[in-house]
User: Which sequence fits this backbone?
């Protein structure tokens, strides 16, 4: 993945906290030189050095790439600790959100590098939307059958089946049953609104 050298809007607005104090320490903990880490992340050593000294703020793709390379989480890169957030999410606090015909229920704390959702996908909803975004996704079918297309390959998943994939791979999800499909869904799209998972471009129906 080649990351852009442009300063992201979030940095200019103060949307991301300073990560420089963590970046150098985590790279050294991983036993990587500046050159090796930069090469793996698709950055120049000079750019990574500017990130580590606080002269640049990383974009989301950079954070995801560096977290994978250093064997850590985006939350740790941002300096968050477990004590910073409540670890428990009560059922009574799980308010459903509807977007693009889908129903989402947050099953994890908001604003973390990893988000957990319970998702209901009705039959015939958004089967023509291709989704592509940085991060990883894991899903587990609770009820119904799911049609999942990853790149050029189509899969049919039933209850108990799961999938784990890089979400830069073009993917489409659709319910195969008229009663819809219910999923547990985990993704690493940092601080994204649930509606962001509905973004894409129409390209035609799943086979």
Assistant:
């Amino acid at each position: 993945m080649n990351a852009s050298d442009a300063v992201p809007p979030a940095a200019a607005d103060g949307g991301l906290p300073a990560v420089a104090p963590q970046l150098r320490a985590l790279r050294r903990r991983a036993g990587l030189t500046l050159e090796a880490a930069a090469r793996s992340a698709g950055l120049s050593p000079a750019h990574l050095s500017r990130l580590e000294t606080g002269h640049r703020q990383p974009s989301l793709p950079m954070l995801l790439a560096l977290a994978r390379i250093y064997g850590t989480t985006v939350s740790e890169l941002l300096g968050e600790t477990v004590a910073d957030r409540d670890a428990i999410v009560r059922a009574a606090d799980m308010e459903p959100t509807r977007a693009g015909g889908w129903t989402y229920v947050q099953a994890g704390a908001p604003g973390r590098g990893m988000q957990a959702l319970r998702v209901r996908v009705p039959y015939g909803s958004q089967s023509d939307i291709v989704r592509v975004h940085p991060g990883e996704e894991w899903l587990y079918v609770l009820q119904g059958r799911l049609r999942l297309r990853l790149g050029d390959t189509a899969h049919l998943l039933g209850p108990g089946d799961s999938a784990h994939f890089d979400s830069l791979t073009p993917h489409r999800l659709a319910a195969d049953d008229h009663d819809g499909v219910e999923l547990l869904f985990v993704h690493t799209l940092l601080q994204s609104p649930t509606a962001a998972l509905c973004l894409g471009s129409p390209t035609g129906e799943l086979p």
